[in-house]
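Lecture notes, unit on protein representations.

Consider one protein chain, 75 amino acids long.
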Amino acid sequence: MQTETLIEKIKSLPPERVSEIEDFVDFIADRNNRSMRHDAIAEYAAKHGGSIADLDAKLEAASLEHLFDIERVNP
């Protein structure tokens, strides 16, 4: 579907439906961001596991935060 066609369909909806679409787009963007963050952490871990970089406290905190986020979304 072309972007213009989608935009025209959205414009034809009542405001409360447009709000639902906005919420859905935000949800998809958030899911995509979490996936990208997960991939970056996994790549870093594969590359640096067992090295001095593996002991980075800030990175460890970020990875734990990410795991807690995943657990909240997928209990």
